[in-house]
Amino acid sequence: MSSTTYPSVRAAAAPKVRSAHAEASRSGIWVGICTITMSFMAFLSALYVRQGASADWTHIVLPRILYLNTLALLLSSATLEMSRRALAPVSGSEVDSVAVRKGFAWLSGTLALGLLFVAGQYEAWRQLAAQGLYLATNANSSFYYVLTAMHGLHLLAGIAALLFVMSRLLLVGNRFRHSTFEATTIYWHFMGVLWLFLLLVLRTKL
Amino acid sequence: MRIKHVYLAGVAILAAATLTSAVPGGGTVSGKITYEGTPAKQKPIDMSKEPSCAKQYTTPPTTETVVTGANNALENVVVYISAGAPDDAAPSQAAVFTQKGCRYIPHVLAFQVNQPLQVVNDDQTSHNIHPLAKVNREWNKSQPPGTPPIVDKYDKPEFIPVKCNVHPWMHGTFAVLKNSHYAISANDGGFALPNLPPGKYTISAYHESYGDQSQEVTITGSETKTINFVFKAKPY
Amino acid sequence: MQEASAQPAHVHAPPEGFIRKHVFSLDHKVIGKQYYALGLLAVCMGMGLSWLMRFHLVWPTTRIPGLELLSKVGAPGGVITPEYYLSLLTMHGTLMVFFVLTNAPFAAFGNYFLPIQIGAEDMAFPRFNMMSFWTTLVAFLVLVLAFVIPDGPPISGWTSYAPLSAVGQDAGPGMGWGMNLWGISIAIFCIGSLLGALNFIATTLDLRAKGMTLMRMPICTWAWFITSCIALLAFAVLLPACILLILDRTAGTSFFIPSGLVVSDRLQPHSGGSPLLWQHLFWFFGHPEVYIAILPSMGIVSHILINSMRKPLLSSKVIIYCMMSIGFLSWMVWGHHMFVSGMNPFSSLLFSFPTLTITIPATIMTLIWLGSLYGANLRINAASLFALGFISMFVSGGVSGFFLAQPSIDIVLHATYFVVGHFHMVMGVASIFGVFAGTYFWYGKMTGRMMNEKLGQLHFWLTFIGTYCIFMPFHYLGLVGNIRRYSSFVNDFMGPLMPLHKFITIAALSTGAAQFIFLFNLIYSHFKGKPASENPWEGTTLEWSIPSPPPWNNFGGKHPVIYHDPYQYGVKGSKGDYIMQDSPEPSAS
Amino acid sequence: MEIAARVGLGERLDAMGKLFAIVLVIIALASAYPIAKHMYVPPEDISTHGHAIDDQLSDTMAEAGFAFLGAQIILAFFVWKFSERKEGAKLKNFPGGAKLMVSVAFIIVGAEVFALGVLGQKAWANVYFTPPRPDALQIQAQAGQFAFYFRYPGADGKFGAIHPDKIDEGNQNFFGLDPANDIEARDDIVSGELTIPVNREVHLLMHAKDVGHSFYVRELRIQQDFVPGLDLSVHFTATKIGRYEIVCTQLCGLGHYNMKAYLSVMAQDDFEKWLKQKASEQ
């Protein structure tokens, strides 16, 4: 999807009218992020306690592909940012404008990269399994699978949100809502940050 | 009439039908079970946590994993036909396993596949029956005093250790057997398998601590064959 | 500010058809009632279970006719087996803590009144709201499913300590699929509660009417808000714990199961896990959960008390700050459940101190409630009686907490009936009193008909006296050393205590029976109760400015503007001794 | 009273406020009575550290009782005095208002928290912060579903190693000892009853066989969980000869209610006799 085929139109910034509902969805997503962070903190404290609990703590080598996945996820954040810029001027009602097409293209890119990440994570699992490291093999592998699976689930929710926004963009009469899109963006970026943090933990602790 | 029965029985054996293959006046395998070496010392059971049981004994009862009799006789050994005899239809009367004085009576209960099993609680305390079956379905039930007997049956042959989760010293054995030819050695170690129709049999003896042994025997008519089993006893 | 265009589209068209109106409704009021109904169902079950337990404890061998129909294995011939007693105990605790104490005062009343009290047309995310209820309902169904599966309900108590809860079937009857269902149910419940809490917070932050500053919110709104903040973090910890537990049970991992365990003569194929890890995770949720249960009732009771006293509290702000500090402290005290569980003894001291410190805000609140009564013109009715009863219960349950907060005394009282008496009074009965008060107070608003006052007061007297008769003796039993969670008392020290146990059982059965008055009142008044006016209690907050029951979008499309602090009582107002929050007339202050 | 009329209540209700006050006072006094009369108290303490705990308990009881009665009676009094006054009765505010309440709470409760929370911790320290004396008698306690077993090191003073796979309850091998290959295990003395000499410190090494359990002897003022995979220990000195009950206080499964053993405290020479007799049974 080459977004360059379109002439870059510098559109006037849309008037910033923030409705109560938009505010709510924004604080909603931040609250959601708090609780997700909290639950991952719980997992991690479990990891620390479990490591201290007994001497069976070993070491597993992270599959290389994880770094590619990370790259894909970071790129997806970038493309999402591009689409946010593209869609900033789009008003609730406009259909099939250049800006909409452009934003949609960037969104599709984000979606593709997101799916790529998920696929990559799955591949990483298969590589570990090939080494004979399964969920129950040892504490380290258990935590690896649990943490990546949890992050993966949350990311799939993000992908669902992306699809929702894209469908809203395509719908006739464009029911696109900036608040929803913004919430999705924040969530997606958070998924990226969370993954970087998890990667750090996996690398240092496992 | 009798001729007919024998005839039928013969057919039954040949066709390995599930009719009862016991023949009155058939051959008999009998013998004595003994041990050599020093068996593990049986320790007195401390039932003080269950006064209603403890007060039934003047001297504390001992464990029953190895019960011996005069001149090295070995009790509680299940002697059965592991090969050569056809499977029998299960008798309808139930094999009864009684909990009395926080012990299992009998300590070893032998019965047939699909024969009804009845577990009775004669104590004033609540018991728990947990047969640790592997091939059969495992269950784990409690039986408060004065409640109806637990009725169950097993559909595969197996030697099943039985324990009471509430009273750790209570241990017994279910011997679930394929046919009706079995005996449990008495305190003098003696046993007898009567009414065996002619044929070649594998006689096995099972002890909960010392495991399985078997010997071949061939019955031609109404003779009595003597077979003895000797188990190696270990002090620990 | 929220002009109509700012409102989410779905709030505009009133729902059509029975299903959309009453079943899969997006209306926070319907959802609130649904939560209430679920709580009611759960509390009836929980109470029934406690009846069976109390009966079994004092008449262990007496057969209970028809009980064998409930479970043939668990109650052969109608006599409860030890493991079935533990099943009842586990289900009682789980139902009460999760589906009653978390649902009724928080989710039910909160859903119904939080948006109204801040002048919003609905919750911020009505679809989430609906989802959170239906998720909770699924959790409930999964839990009670344990009653009908052959395996039976789990026997490891509502705290499900590992490794008993983690090793599976070998641990005993009910620890197979029964336990799995428990874990799954609680995990689902967490998700539902998280959605709900998120909704509460976003709504409170962003959908307040014009002029409704945070400090102008009624105390109960504050209580629900603070509670949602606690719930948001607490359930976010319980959920991972449940996931790890389920993995240990089903996937063979070893998070909570150490090496070399021999259960039912079988060497368990696990290694290296930490049983204390479960306790830490569980109580890190578990103690805040206590405040999730009690804070909303504190708010409701303050709200009702002010209305009945016809004068504001000495200081609502202080009450709110106290609730905040309790909420905050609740994160540092989980370890006081584990004084004798093999934690480092130094950490016991560290946990003991903040626990004792919680007494300070609790005492301040009590003193403010008491002090505010001075010089009031207290209107006595079922609602205010239950509110006063709450204070009494809160004090009684609170002082016993002072014992358990000290590790040294906990050596003697841990796991005795003293603990049971303590948390039943302060967390169970007290918060249920809050629910009763709220019900008598708001029933008219919720249904359009008032509850029968005479029956209400009769219900109060029986319940108030009854609960003291049940739970005070628990403390005495504990002092002597009566251990909790015993299905029958075969211990040497039990003999002299049996009369007290009989007394408790009789009190429990009769107090339970008294609750049928409430149930009857609830149903009877729905059809035959006196029609409720818009503002029967002469209240000042927004819920009294709209018809009873409120229209589907609460304010009929109007957007209230707030001029006053919530509680303008004892002033010269146009309607009487009070001024509504949304009335432009000058306030006293 | 029109309010009462509106909610469907015929007659005046001021009686109810008074009734509440009376009932509350009765309840408060009735609740305090059994405590004041010491009708329900822990059994006599037979340990060297227990008295500190008992003092702590009675101090707390005094303060808690005071707070309890005080609060309930004040509540009753105010409800009596200020419920259902005649319409337009003058509303008053408590002199001092919220500030007073806050400062009172901080001072009184703060002092209490300090007194009990900080100074009172020595009772806890007595149990947990003092190491066992080197000459303390070492006994290993094992908790399993649903019984306690106790192991004495025997003549060699060493405990044989534990092999979980060797555990065989039917054969009374509760600890999973391997006497065939492990000499240290041969002379270990295993008993279902915890027998200890009087006035000698005992160092109890705690081992859980299957799930969590707890060791509680009321008279000893000792309660400690068995945590699987965690080697904990407690130490205590019994000062009174007698037979006391050991109970499990950590829910451990269907037999929890029946999981108990006995602690018998003997004179030194009786204890040695007992050991000999036990050794002969092994």
Report on the structure:
- The complex is a heterotetramer of chains A (206), B (236), C (589) and D (282).
- Chain A has 206 residues and is mostly helical.
- Chain A has helices at 20-53, 65-87, 98-130, 139-170, 178-205.
- Chain A has a single domain (18-205), classed as Cytochrome c oxidase, subunit III, four-helix bundle (Four Helix Bundle (Hemerythrin (Met), subunit A)), CATH 1.20.120.
- The two termini of chain A are 39 Å apart.
- Helix content of chain D is 39%, strand content 21%.
- Chain D has helices spanning 2-6, 14-36, 50-82, 97-119, 121-128, 183-186, 268-281; strands at 137-144, 147-152, 189-191, 193-197, 201-208, 213-217, 222-226, 232-237, 242-247, 260-266.
- Chains in contact: A-C, B-C, B-D, C-D.
- At the B-C interface, β10 of B face α4 of C.
Fraction of helical residues of chain B = under 10%
Biggest interface, chains and residues, is: C-D, 118 and 110 residues
How would you describe the shape of chain C?
A: globular
Task: Report how far apart the termini of chain B are.
Answer: 55 Å
Structural class of chain C: mainly alpha
How can the largest sheet of chain B be summarized? 5 strands, mixed
How much of the sequence lies in strands of chain B comes to 35-45%
Q: Summarize the helix and strand pattern of chain C as letters.
A: HHHHHHHHEEHHHHHHHHEE
Q: What are the SSEs and their pairings?
A:
The complex is a heterotetramer of chains A (206), B (236), C (589) and D (282).
Chain A: H1 20-53, H2 65-87, H3 98-130, H4 139-170, H5 178-205
Chain C: H1 17-23, H2 28-58, H3 67-70, H4 82-101, H5 103-117, H6 126-148, H7 177-206, H8 219-250, E1 262-263, E2 266-267, H9 275-309, H10 316-329, H11 345-373, H12 382-404, H13 407-413, H14 417-447, H15 453-480, H16 498-528, E3 568-569, E4 578-579
Antiparallel strand pairs in C: 1-2, 3-4
Helix pairs in contact in C: 2-4, 2-5, 2-6, 2-16, 4-5, 5-7, 5-8, 5-14, 6-7, 7-8, 8-9, 8-10, 9-12, 9-14, 10-11, 11-12, 12-14, 12-15, 14-15, 15-16
Chain D: H1 2-6, H2 14-36, H3 50-82, H4 97-119, H5 121-128, E1 137-144, E2 147-152, H6 183-186, E3 189-191, E4 193-197, E5 201-208, E6 213-217, E7 222-226, E8 232-237, E9 242-247, E10 260-266, H7 268-281
Parallel strand pairs in D: 1-5, 4-10
Antiparallel strand pairs in D: 1-2, 2-3, 5-8, 6-7, 9-10
Helix pairs in contact in D: 2-3, 3-5
